[in-house]
């Protein structure tokens, strides 16, 4: 029973989520279990459920019911004849044009001289790890050189308040004024395209300097810092010459400037703003401070209304931006009572990863003010959380701090510090006085100075960035005084901000960074952090040392801008117990096996594999490396004895290419080698023409063997072309083959202008070629099917710019070699043919009728029969209706697909995507509230207008309060703090989607589907030597009462309890090795002071606005 409605006994329970129900399912919304209503209150839903129940009952009894009227007979033996005839004709054609039997024979001929090598996974992963350790060590050495140079330069530099110095400003270089003269700080700067730096325009002889819009480019601190850091130019160049695999090197200054090598031109965003601030980047934050637990305590009492609340919200957002993956955080709001802004996080700290930071920002935006501020309860709660986490050995296990954000009206706080923090003062307290009122400044400073913190006053939005940064300098003091140059490696992250104007494709990176300190004796106790130096390592470069073609083509990470990194559990999601994840985080060496489901062809298909996982750590880094070998073609390598002369001769055929992404020889280090293709490099290596070339000798031997064995295919295909010169015989566009070693041959049977799919086997169609990440789709599918059996795949050659292009079919089969009872897949061979030929062959085959003399009693082209040819995933290759071809059968005939699923002919596999992106749901806490009355709606609109006006006044205030050169300052901050509201961005989410797979044990079946007044008769027959099925049905029976079955992804919605549990869960993670929380020589009295108190006219008008308008509008 559901609610108050009882169902007939005919109804069966819903099956598990991993298997497809044999019958249509029903669903009820169970999200509100306490609001069940009787059936008569759900007239529409109840009628629908009754209808579903009737369908279920009828379908269950469909095999025993007899037709209610005359039905078309579909003899199964006739359908089998059609399937066998079509299969034989198809097999003869594709073997003839592909030459698959010849290729199989050529490998068979040399079988006796071949050796199949089983890949040793542990040995492989250890070798990869050692190679990566060597590479990463070189990056560390480069960064150490920069640290030494920067600290030495600072030691020898004396601060000059009146320093005048021109430098290459990244935004202004090559800019001219209206008279054609270079603008100040914008001299001529030579830029050239460089392939090593993603073809960007750069200058590899010198660096350039970038500053965010809200940092004055001629401030004395900036000029002195830029002048001092000029010494890094020589080191940048020397590092790059010593290690040509280095990418970007840079110095991020604590004053806000960013020196980057090679020099590059920086372009503002569409608002004319440079928002990038190096001090907010993960590499800077992690290198500048040790991990930290932060509790932000914000005053939401009535005195914080209006502008103060706006500034407080922006301050919290700025603090959140300074937190990284190693930090933990929570936010408590207080007035006359305290509340966690995320109730789910009550009493805990959560990792400050990107998802949680963005979640907090959204909640902060919704904070409202009311009541009287009572701070002691909030401080008590904050101290208790920090104490509990420290005692439970949770959180960062290092620095702990409370950020108090208020307008200063605080009292009864001293007893809290006496109880929880004195005398040890293990928790630092940072205070932020909001607004221009200075009455409570002494109290706020006292709190900070007596708890080893720092006090600042934030009067405008523009104040927030620089004032918040002060806490990082305080937390870095112990490390600076100790001169501990910890090497920091960041998590993998998407670089989406560095060159936003360059239309760069997103790239996964890790950064190695080290802090730079002042070594001057007179500033030792102050612990002055000068900045952080770093260098990027693209994960793609790292993975070149562990290329996937060495073991298998695996799951690919999806680059996404909305979060920084991808957890292993989101990729290898079959590891439910997180055994693999735990072992790798703990830096263990070992192996395990798992049965996995791998999506193919954009999620339309799936491979069932058994994977062996091998893992180890990478010494002197926080990283672990895992390698996966798929049992079958992934774990064997074919080796043979081929002479260099013979191999070279066959390598140079014009129809032969090699996987351009694969590294047969290292060509990206020596500048003289960068212009070489991999094939040219192999030739030079084999001929001894270039003794300096380093090549993978085992892979080169594999290529030589494949080149020799596959060489006869060129002559075979040429003869086929000559023999089928007649236009009417041109049924195949091209033949192709690919080998385990990345060798690719192809031959056209028609003129290149007549090829149906011109993108096939080109970089434009990435799925059809060998890449760093995967083997071609046609190879992967063939390798998982029996050798000799062809896999057919329908692809549309139609592109948006060229509608009407024909659909094409690729057919491929694997070539296997067996030596000493080991079988290895060595190649895949196939053809691309036109769909029209397939259709002609099929219609001809279905005109066969066995022993019956004269015209056949029925044919697939009769109106009384409906025929489909579908593949093993249920996609239609042939139908009488062209609009159905390429679509999933369930979208066309829900009744037939439902019956095939219920009979076990097909099974449904539920796949999950934990890296998906979804449109955010339009969620409002009280969407109906403005509709209560016209007055309420008017007040809401007025409040919005007032808020916008106050922000505008605030912007003008920021402009008027400082030097004219900083005019864009508030504008930059305003754009940054409100940009996320204006952009309708996709958000990370979890999705699930069904994939349908034919169960090969069932090669033929037939039956009848009861559709109410009639029965739908059908016969299914496997088409031999292929992945195709023939379906013949009776179209006269209307079965539209069955719902269509769609293959589409749906977001996994979690109820509040599950969602909260997921958000609260603390996954096992590896913490940084070092912690610098306190130092006895630290000058704790360097704890802040007052801000500029000047006021401009708009600011003076604000109290008037607040007085005139009703209080509730300024919440």
Describe the structure.
By secondary structure, the chain is of the alpha+beta class. It is built from 28 helices and 36 strands. Strands 4, 5, 6, 15, 16, 17 and 18 form a seven-stranded antiparallel β-sheet that branches. Strands 8, 9, 10, 11, 12, 13 and 14 form a seven-stranded mixed β-sheet that branches. It has a six-stranded antiparallel β-sheet with strand order 23-25-24-28-27-26. β2 and β3 form a beta hairpin. α17 packs across α19 (697-710). It is globular and about 105 Å long. It starts with 42 loop residues before the first helix and ends in a 7-residue tail after the last helix. Mean pLDDT is 81; it is low at 1-70, 499-505, 553-564, 799-803, 923-941, 950-983 and 1090-1115.
């Amino acid at each position: 029973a559901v609610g108050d409605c009882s169902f007939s006994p005919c109804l069966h329970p819903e099956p598990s989520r991993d298997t497809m129900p044999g019958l249509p399912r029903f669903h009820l919304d169970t999200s509100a279990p306490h609001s069940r209503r009787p059936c008569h209150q759900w007239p529409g839903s109840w009628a629908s459920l009754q209808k579903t129940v009737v369908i279920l009952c009828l379908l269950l009894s469909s095999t025993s019911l007899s037709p209610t009227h005359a039905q078309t007979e579909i003899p199964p033996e006739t359908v089998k004849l059609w399937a066998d005839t079509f299969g034989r004709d198809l097999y003869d054609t594709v073997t003839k044009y592909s030459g698959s039997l010849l290729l199989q024979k050529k490998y068979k001929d040399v079988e006796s001289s071949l050796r199949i090598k089983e890949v040793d996974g542990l040995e492989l992963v250890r070798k990869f790890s050692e190679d990566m350790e060597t590479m990463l060590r070189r990056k560390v050495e480069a960064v150490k050189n920069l640290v030494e140079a920067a600290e030495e330069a600072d030691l020898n530099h004396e601060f000059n308040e009146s320093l005048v110095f021109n430098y290459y400003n990244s935004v202004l270089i090559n800019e001219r004024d209206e008279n054609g003269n270079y603008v100040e700080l914008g001299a001529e700067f030579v830029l050239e395209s460089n392939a090593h730096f993603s073809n960007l325009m750069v200058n590899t002889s010198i660096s350039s300097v970038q500053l965010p819009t809200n940092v004055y480019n001629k401030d004395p601190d900036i000029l002195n810092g830029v002048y001092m850091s000029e010494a890094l130019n020589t080191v940048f160049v020397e590092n790059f010459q010593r290690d040509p695999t280095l990418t970007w090197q840079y110095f991020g200054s604590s004053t806000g400037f960013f020196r980057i090598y090679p020099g590059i031109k920086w372009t503002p965003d569409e608002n004319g703003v440079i928002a990038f601030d190096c001090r907010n980047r993960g590499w800077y934050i992690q290198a500048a401070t040790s991990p930290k637990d932060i509790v932000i305590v914000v005053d939401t009492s009535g005195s914080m209304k209006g502008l103060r609340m706006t500034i407080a919200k922006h301050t919290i957002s700025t603090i959140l931006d300074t937190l990284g993956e190693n930090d933990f955080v929570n936010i408590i709001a207080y007035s006359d009572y305290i509340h966690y802004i995320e109730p789910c996080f009550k009493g805990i700290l959560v990792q400050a990863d990107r998802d949680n930071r963005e979640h907090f920002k959204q909640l902060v935006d919704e904070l409202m003010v009311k009541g009287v501020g009572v701070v002691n309860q909030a401080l008590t709660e904050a101290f208790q959380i920090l104490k509990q986490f420290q005692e439970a050995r949770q959180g960062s296990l290092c620095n702990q701090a409370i950020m108090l954000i208020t307008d200063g009206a605080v009292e009864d706080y001293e007893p809290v510090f006496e109880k929880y923090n004195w005398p040890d003062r293990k928790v630092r307290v940072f205070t932020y006085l909001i607004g221009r009122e200075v009455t409570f400044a002494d109290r706020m400073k006292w709190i900070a100075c007596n708890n080893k913190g720092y006090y600042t006053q934030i009067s405008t939005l523009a104040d927030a960035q620089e004032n918040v940064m002060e806490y990082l300098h305080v937390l870095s003091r112990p490390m600076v005084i100790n001169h501990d140059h910890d090497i920091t490696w960041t998590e993998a992250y998407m670089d989406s901000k560095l060159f936003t104007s360059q239309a760069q494709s997103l790239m996964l990176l890790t950064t190695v960074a080290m802090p730079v300190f002042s070594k001057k004796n007179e500033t030792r106790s102050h612990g002055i952090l000068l900045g952080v130096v770093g260098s990027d390592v693209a994960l793609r470069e790292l993975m070149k040392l562990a290329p996937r073609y060495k073991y298998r083509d695996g799951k690919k990470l999806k680059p996404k801008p909305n979060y920084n990194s991808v957890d292993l559990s989101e990729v290898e999601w079959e590891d439910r117990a997180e055994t693999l994840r735990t072992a790798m985080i703990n830096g263990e060496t070992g192996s395990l096996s798992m049965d996995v489901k791998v999506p193919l062809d954009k999620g339309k298909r799936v491979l069932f594999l058994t994977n062996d996982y091998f893992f180890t750590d990478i010494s002197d880094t926080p990283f672990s490396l895992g390698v996966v070998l798929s049992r079958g073609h992934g774990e064997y390598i074919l080796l043979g004895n081929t002479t260099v002369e013979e191999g070279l001769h066959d390598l140079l055929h014009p129809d032969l290419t090699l996987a351009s992404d694969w590294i047969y020889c290292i060509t990206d280090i020596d500048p003289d080698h960068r212009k070489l293709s991999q094939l040219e490099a192999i030739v030079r290596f084999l001929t001894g023409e270039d003794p300096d070339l380093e090549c993978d000798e085992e892979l080169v031997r594999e290529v030589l063997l494949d080149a020799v064995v596959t060489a006869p295919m060129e002559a075979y295909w040429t003869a086929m072309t000559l023999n089928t010169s007649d236009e009417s015989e041109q049924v195949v566009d091209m033949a192709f083959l690919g080998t385990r070693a990345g060798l690719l041959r192809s031959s056209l049977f028609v003129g290149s202008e007549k090829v149906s799919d011109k993108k096939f086997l080109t970089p434009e169609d990435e799925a059809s070629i060998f890449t760093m990440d995967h083997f071609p789709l046609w190879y992967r599918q063939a390798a998982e099917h029996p050798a000799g059996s062809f896999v057919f795949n329908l692809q549309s050659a139609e592109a948006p710019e060229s509608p009407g292009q024909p659909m094409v079919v690729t057919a491929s089969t694997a070539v296997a070699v067996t030596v000493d009872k080991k079988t290895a897949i060595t190649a895949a061979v196939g053809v691309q043919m036109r769909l029209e030929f397939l259709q002609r062959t099929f219609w001809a085959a279905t005109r066969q009728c066995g022993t019956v003399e004269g015209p056949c009693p029925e044919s697939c082209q009769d109106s009384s029969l409906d025929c489909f040819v579908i593949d093993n995933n249920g996609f239609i290759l042939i139908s009488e209706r062209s609009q159905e071809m390429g679509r999933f059968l369930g979208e066309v005939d829900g009744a037939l697909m439902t019956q095939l699923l219920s009979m076990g002919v097909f099974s449904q596999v539920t796949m999950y995507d934990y890296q998906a992106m979804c449109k955010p749901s339009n969620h409002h806490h009280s969407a109906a509230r403005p509709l209560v009355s016209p007055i309420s709606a008017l007040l809401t609109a007025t409040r919005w207008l007032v808020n916008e006006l106050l922000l505008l006044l605030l912007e003008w205030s920021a402009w008027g309060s400082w030097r004219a050169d900083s005019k864009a300052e508030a504008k930059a901050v305003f754009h940054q703090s409100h940009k996320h509201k204006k952009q309708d961005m996709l958000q990370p989410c979890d999705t699930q989607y069904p994939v349908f797979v034919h169960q090969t044990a069932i090669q033929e079946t037939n039956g009848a589907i009861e559709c109410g007044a009639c029965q739908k008769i059908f016969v299914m027959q496997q088409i031999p030597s292929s992945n195709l099925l023939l379906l013949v049905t009776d179209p006269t029976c209307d079965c539209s009462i069955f719902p269509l079955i769609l293959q589409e992804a749906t977001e996994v919605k979690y109820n509040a309890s599950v969602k909260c549990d997921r958000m609260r869960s603390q996954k096992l993670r590896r913490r940084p090795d070092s912690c610098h929380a306190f130092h006895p020589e630290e000058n704790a009295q360097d704890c802040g002071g007052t801000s500029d108190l000047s006021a401009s006219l708009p600011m003076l008008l604000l109290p008037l606005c607040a007085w005139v308008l009703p209080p509730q509008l300024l919440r």
